[in-house]
Amino acid sequence: MVGIREPASRGPRRGDIHFVDFGDARGHLIRGPHPAVIIQADRLARSSTVIVAPMTSAARAATFAPPFLVAFGAGESGLPRDGWVKCDQPTTVPVALLGPRVGRLAPAAVDRIEAALGFVFGL
């Protein structure tokens, strides 16, 4: 609408890709620094924490296609390689621990993530 503007959003936005150091949580969780996609709603962009899903380019992820593993192409992400979003491993991190923004997922890839999160959380 003319003359009505929403305030500029501060903080990370859904679909942004940042590097996150996942540390060593042990078990079968992703470890160390990896790109991660912001999966929380933009309404929470001013929060001091952010919900992310880790991303991987490990070829072993391609050996099976569970509904919680979302494939994306390099052209959909701004990253140099194709990969997968591990929607079964969402985690909350302080915004202050986000590394640099390195890309942004295309809307179609975000839609696939939403479907996978629906599967993971039974929504």
Write the layout of secondary structure elements.
Blueprint: E1 16-21, E2 33-38, E3 49-56, E4 69-72, H1 74-77, E5 83-86, E6 91-94, E7 101-104, H2 107-121
Antiparallel strand pairs: 1-2, 1-7, 2-3, 3-5, 3-6, 4-5
Q: Any descriptors?
A:
123 residues; alpha+beta; SH3 type barrels; 7-stranded antiparallel sheet; 7 strands; globular
Q: Could you say what the CATH topology is called?
A: SH3 type barrels
Helix content: 10-25%
> pLDDT under 50 segments (min length 5)?
none
In the residues, how many domains can be counted?
1
Number of helices: 2
Alpha carbon gyration radius: 15 Å
Residues in β-strands, percent: 25-35%
CATH architecture level-2 label: Roll
Termini, distance in Å? 33 Å
CATH class: Mainly Beta
Query: Rough shape?
Result: globular
Helical/strand content category: alpha+beta
The total count of strands amounts to 7
